[in-house]
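Q: I'm writing a short explainer about ParB/RepB/Spo0J family partition protein for a general audience and would like to include a description of its predicted shape. Could you first generate the structure from this sequence?
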Amino acid sequence: MSKKKALGRGLSALLKDNETEDKLEVDIPENNTIPVAAATPAGPTSGINEIPVDQIEVNPFQPRSHFDQDALLELAESIKVHGIIQPITVRRLSENQYQLISGERRFQASKLADLKMIPAYVRSADDQQMLEMALIENIQRENLNAIEIALSYQRLISECNLKQEELGERVGKNRATVTNYLRLLKLPPDIQISVRDNQLSMGHARAIINVDTPEQQLYIFKRTLAEDLSVRKVEELVRELSGKKNGPGGESENGSSSPAPVSKEIVQLQSNLSSHFGTKVVIKSDGKKGEIKIPFLSVEDLNRILDILKI
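A: Of course. Here's the predicted structure. Afterward I'll give you a sentence or two in plain language.
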């Protein structure tokens, strides 16, 4: 029985050759050998070509700059035993020079495995198509985190002049999904880094972004990590602080107007007290008198605050 590898609908739509090549599928016989055709100087060729490794340069538009070295070494050992199962894709620069479009991990591992020739598809592409292909191929990787995906989406929109609907068609996602990823880039850097490093899930991040201010977002983020809050708990906390209830700076449930803006000193004091108590502290003052509100979400949370107050 043969095996098939495919790059997916988004990337294949960019590689405008015949119908078979658009699917980028390769039938692999049981002995893992791949039938190849010699590359010729006269433009793209059909099927798979055997190309000298030293005639291929890396893709300057590669969106991912770091590759795990241990994983590359493992792939190199597999290539030594089984060869290249899925060909790379390149574009021709000159008679004896090619540029990588997709498959950089396979390309780098092949060099580590001391391969002299590598199977490849040869395609025609300009610089913008190269960038688009590289970004879409990067997005289709299974091990990307939400921030890497969001950054790739943003680059496709800004550098390839795609609208969100067009982007969704390229990557096989609906517009709402694309929008949810792009919204992550509005979060404070500390939260983005935590998502990137898999310390915070996308579900947590999507809940946190629903509060208005970076201060509130960071407060919820720190509590989430410190207390290992579930997504549901974070959503409850967001509802508590987002202004949909009697939150600071928002409209109350009975429709009353927002309070007057507070001074920078009060804002700073609120921030200091919030950090001290681990909850969003609200100070209301008319300049002479006022009140301090310390919200809690449960009896356990109240006891935690009372312990801090030594009551």
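A: For your explainer, you could say: Residues 69-82 form the longest helix (14 residues).
Q: Perfect, that's easy to follow.
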